[in-house]
Design goal:
Layout: H1 5-34, H2 39-70, H3 74-109
Length: 132
C-alpha cells in the first residue's frame, strides 16, 4: 500500500492540531489569570495546580505507552482495556469514598447555625423572650 503525502498529512493533522492547542493553552490561561483580581496570587496558584496536574498525569501517560506496546493483537488489546477499566473504576470508587469522608468531616466541623455578625453581642436565640 502506497501512502501519499496527503494521506499522511490527513492522518496526522488532528494530532498536530492538538499539540498546537496544548502549546497555546499555557500562555492563554496565564494571560487571562493575569487580568483577574490579585494576579500574583492567582498565577502562583495556577503554577502549583499545574505542577500537581502533571505529577498526577505522568503515570497515566506511562500506562498509555505501555498499553500501546502491549496491544499487539485484538485479544491482547481487549485484555488491556479490561484492566484499564477495572483500574479506573477502582480509582473512582476510592475518590468517592475520600470525598464522602471529607464532606462528613466538614459537616461535623461546622455548626448548623447562622454566623455571628462581627460586633454583635454574643447571645443565642434562646436568650430572647420573643420565642416563648
Amino acid at each position: 500500500m502506497k501512502l501519499s503525502n496527503r494521506t499522511i498529512f490527513l492522518f496526522w493533522a488532528p494530532l498536530a492540531a492538538t499539540w498546537l492547542m496544548m502549546a497555546a493553552e499555557g500562555p492563554f490561561l496565564a494571560a487571562i489569570i493575569a487580568r483577574l483580581a490579585d494576579p500574583k496570587f492567582n498565577l502562583a496558584a495556577h503554577g502549583v495546580a499545574f505542577a500537581f496536574a502533571i505529577l498526577i498525569e505522568a503515570p497515566v501517560i506511562m500506562l498509555m505507552s505501555a498499553a500501546t506496546a502491549e496491544a499487539a493483537d485484538r485479544a491482547r488489546q481487549d485484555a488491556v482495556q479490561a484492566r484499564q477499566q477495572g483500574a479506573e473504576a477502582e480509582v473512582v470508587a476510592e475518590r468517592a469514598v475520600e470525598e464522602a469522608q471529607s464532606a462528613r468531616r466538614l459537616a461535623e466541623r461546622r455548626p448548623h447555625s447562622r454566623p455571628r455578625v462581627p460586633g454583635a453581642p454574643k447571645s443565642s436565640w434562646r436568650d430572647h423572650d420573643s420565642w416563648r
